[in-house]
Design brief:
Length: about 425
């Protein structure tokens, strides 16, 4: 990042805001973003080394502008990887490529066309009975108890059990794959130390090799799962999708398909229990649940910041960006933009336009798993309100958050069950 380009942005390149702001989730973030939306909607954050874009309209325009912005940096490690960590990955045969969320243009369209033949509404809808069964199995374990920690006991495992049905990952591998996914979250989306990167690189090699072996096994023994179906669509033709791209798609979904949904479920429950009248409203009228799901995606979306990089000179929110300059689209801020959502800091399960949130992106890259995520959160809310209408937040339980600018992810949700 060169000083000249930042200085060419118009106003002071290092505003007071840019000198003190951090996009990492912290208390007070919403207030700081609200102030920025009014006073300086696009500013350069020195500690993050990114431009921060706060208004809904600007975020939407970036999401739809593929001429001036690239998505290639969406999953880059938040702290650039040390050469020693890169060597571990190279020596371990880690050959994941940029596919799906972090590639552009025709390549992105080609790979999305292939994966959406398997990851689509029909496939997700067919999972509904399984999701309900898994939710109820998790809730059965809470029966007769006074208190629970819902993240570790319910929401951590649920989305993984669901997506692993599609992926054909056996239940006995769940703990391991979840652990690798956690490491991947840290590597890609949180600041990391040298030691974390070295340990993380080893984990990523193991995770990648697990995916390679899984896909290769399906070449010889096809089943009714994602890798087998993608292999069939590929039909041995690299022009459709190469084997390495296909393995990377599998590697991607084995991560994207559950981490965020876990967080979204936890956040939705916390918001509903914090604003108890809203909880009581959906208990009394379950028809409100789909709307409540959307409002939770808006008010406390799992993804609060998503990246892009300018590839052409482009003006955004009155600031001129130069090619190469990286941007965090603050989804958390866009979702609370008063110009789009009246009274944005109120959690209101009857809000009419909640579905306009950007928590799952928008445009060509919009989340391919969005219908599944919505379905999972909806079923969880339907079953938990039916079975535990007396659920209450234990308000004095300490809550810590993962240190990341990408997710709004708390590390526990303590409740009273009756
Ligand atoms: C609450 C849950 C989820 C959230 C908040 C979420 C969020 C996102 C976001 C922000 C993007 C990037 C959108 C963009 O750049 O415009 C994305 C892309 C993607 N998500 Fe999700 N996601 C969730 C669940 C899922 C699930 C369950 C799956 C798998 C079934 C999934 C698979 C994908 C894929 C494959 C992409 C890449 C799409 C593309 O670039 O073409 N996600 N998601």
């Amino acid at each position: 990042m060169n000083e000249h380009t930042k200085a060419s942005a118009g106003g002071c390149p290092f505003s007071g805001r840019g000198a003190t702001f951090s996009a990492l989730y912290h208390e007070g973030l919403w207030d700081e973003l609200a102030e920025a939306r009014q006073e300086e909607p696009v500013f350069f954050s020195q500690s993050d080394d990114y431009w921060i874009v706060t208004r809904y309209d600007d975020v939407m325009s970036i999401l739809h502008d593929h001429e001036h912005f690239s998505a290639e940096n969406t999953s880059d490690s938040a702290t650039p990887m040390h050469a020693d960590a890169l060597k571990i990955m190279k020596d371990g045969g880690f050959t994941a490529e940029k596919v799906q969320s972090n590639c552009d243009g025709e390549r992105h369209q080609r790979i999305r066309d292939v994966s959406s033949k398997v990851l689509n509404l029909r496939a997700f809808a067919a999972l509904e009975p399984k999701i309900r069964e898994f939710v109820n199995e998790a809730l059965d374990r809470l029966e007769g108890r006074d208190t629970a920690e819902l993240l570790s006991e319910v929401t951590y495992e649920l989305p993984a059990r669901v997506i692993f049905q599609l992926l054909g990952i056996p239940e006995e591998d769940m703990e391991q794959v979840k652990a690798w996914s956690g490491t991947r979250t840290t590597m890609n989306f949180s600041p990391s130390t040298y030691d974390q990167q070295i340990a993380g690189a080893k984990d990523m090699v193991d995770y990648w090799q697990y995916c390679v072996n899984h896909v290769k096994e399906r070449i010889d023994n096809p089943r009714d799962d994602l890798a087998s179906k993608l292999l069939e669509i590929r039909g041995g033709d690299d022009n459709v999708i190469t084997l390495n791209e296909l393995i990377t798609v599998f590697y991607g979904v084995a991560f994207a398909g559950h981490e965020t949904t876990t967080t979204q479920m936890t956040n939705a429950l916390r918001a509903l229990l914090t604003y108890r009248d809203q909880w009581e409203a959906i208990c009394a009228d379950p028809k409100l649940i789909p709307q409540a799901v959307e409002e939770a995606f808006r008010y406390c979306g799992a993804v609060i910041g998503w990246r892009r990089r300018a590839i052409q000179p482009v003006e955004i929110g009155g600031v001129m960006l130069q090619p190469g300059e990286p941007v965090i689209m603050s989804f958390g801020s866009a979702n609370r933009d008063e110009a789009q959502f009246p009274d944005p800091h109120t959690f209101d399960v009857t809000r009419k336009n909640a579905r306009k949130h950007v928590t799952m992106g928008n445009g060509k890259h919009v989340c391919l798993g969005a219908p599944l995520a919505r379905l999972e959160v909806k079923i969880l809310l339907e079953e938990i309100t039916r079975r535990f209408p007396g659920l209450r937040l234990i308000e004095d339980a300490p809550v810590s958050h993962v240190k990341t600018f990408v997710f709004n992810a708390s590390e526990s949700l303590h409740v009273r069950l009756r």
